[in-house]
Amino acid sequence: DFKLRQSKYYENRQARKARSRRLIQKGALLEKYFQADNLSVEQTEELLKTFASYVNAHKPNKLKNDQPNN
Question: For residues 44 and 36, is the Cβ–Cβ distance under 8 A?
Fold first, then answer.
C-alpha cells in the first residue's frame, strides 16, 4: 500500500512539474511575441480574449486540438 501511494505521489509530482514547465514556457512565448511583459495578468487576459476567436478560427489544422502531438 505504501509503495503504491509513493508511486502515485511520484507520478503526480512529475505531472505537476511538467505542467509548470509548459506554462512557464508558454508564458515566456506570450511575452516575447505579444510584447506583454509590462501587462498585468488582467490586461494579458483581456489581450488574449480580444484575439482568441480570430486565432482559433484561423488556426492551421496541424495545431488544432484534435490532431496528435508530434
Answer: yes
Q: Is residue 20 part of a domain?
A: yes
Question: Which pTM value belongs to this model?
Answer: 0.74
Total tally of structural domains belonging to the chain: 1
Residue 28 lies in a domain: yes
Q: State the residue for C-alpha cell 502531438.
A: 69
Say which residues have a Cβ less than 8 Å from residue 30's Cβ, sequence separation at least 6: 36, 44, 48
Residue 30 lies in a domain: yes
Confidence of residue 37 (pLDDT cuts 50, 70, 90): very high
Distance of CA 17 to the CA centre of its chain: 13
